[in-house]
Amino acid sequence: DAGVIQSPRHEVTEMGQEVTLRCKPISGHDYLFWYRQTMMRGLELLIYFNNNVPIDDSGMPEDRFSAKMPNASFSTLKIQPSEPRDSAVYFCASSGGGETQYFGPGTRLLVL
Amino acid sequence: EDQVTQSPEALRLQEGESSSLNCSYTVSGLRGLFWYRQDPGKGPEFLFTLYSAGEEKEKERLKATLTKKESFLHITAPKPEDSATYLCAVLTDSWGKFQFGAGTQVVVTP
C-alpha cells in the first residue's frame, strides 16, 4: 500500500493567494483528517470526514479555510486568501473504523 | 475539558541509558490511547494502541503501559536511531477524533 499521499510537499506563496492542498487516503479507509502542526500549538485537528461527509469542522480557524471530500479517494484543504500566520505543516491522516490514524508526509506551507 | 499532557518536553539520553516518557490525560471517557513517533520532516508514525488500564505493548526497545490516568513509554537501552519526537493521543468518542499531546523530543547520543 502506498500510504496516505499528499501534494504538494512544499508550497511557497504570497499573502492573499489561494492555496490548495491535496490528499489521497489509504484505500478502504472511511475516515479522513486534516491537521495543522506548528511549533507553538503542536498538532491541531482542523476537520474530519466520515464516508466523505464532514463530521466536525470546529478546528477550522476561519472562513478562509475550507475542505472538501468529493469521493472516497480524494480530499482538498483550501485557504483563500492565505496569510503569513497560516504558515505551518499540514497533515492528512486516514483511518479505518475511526481508530488508528495513518499520516501522510505533510505539506510544508510558507506564506510570505 | 479534555487534556493531554506529555512530560518531559525534551529528553537527552546517552546510548544505552534507559528512560521513560509520560503522557497524562484527563478525559471524560477513554476509548484508546495511541503512541506515535515523528521524525523531522515526516508525518507521525503509529507505534502502539492501548485500550485498558494494565495493558502493555512492546516493540523492539519500546514498551508502552497504561493506567487510569496516564501512560508511559519506556525506552530500554536506546540507540541513536530512537531519536525522534514521541506523541501520545487519546481517542474519547465514537467518531474517531484524537486529541494529541505536545510531544516529547528525545535525542540519543552515541
Low-confidence stretches of chain B: none
Cα-atom radius of gyration of chain B: 13 Å
Largest sheet of chain B: 6 strands, mixed
Percent of residues in beta strands of chain A: over 45%
* % residues in beta strands of chain B: over 45%
Structural class of chain A: mainly beta
Largest interface: A-B, 23 and 23 residues
Radius of gyration of chain A: 13 Å
Q: SSE string of chain B, helix = H, strand = E? A: EEEEEEEEEEE
Instruction: Characterize the overall form of chain A.
Output: globular
Q: What is the overall number of helices of chain B? A: 0
What does the main sheet of chain A amount to?
Answer: 7 strands, mixed
3D shape of chain B: globular
Produce the secondary structure layout.
The complex is a heterodimer of chains A (112) and B (110).
Chain A: E1 5-7, E2 10-13, E3 19-24, E4 31-38, E5 42-50, E6 53-56, E7 65-71, E8 74-79, E9 88-95, E10 102-103, E11 107-111
Parallel strand pairs in A: 2-11
Antiparallel strand pairs in A: 1-3, 3-8, 4-5, 4-9, 5-6, 7-8, 9-10, 9-11
Chain B: E1 3-7, E2 10-14, E3 19-26, E4 32-38, E5 45-50, E6 56-59, E7 62-66, E8 70-75, E9 84-91, E10 98-100, E11 104-109
Parallel strand pairs in B: 2-11
Antiparallel strand pairs in B: 1-3, 3-8, 4-5, 4-9, 6-7, 7-8, 9-10, 9-11
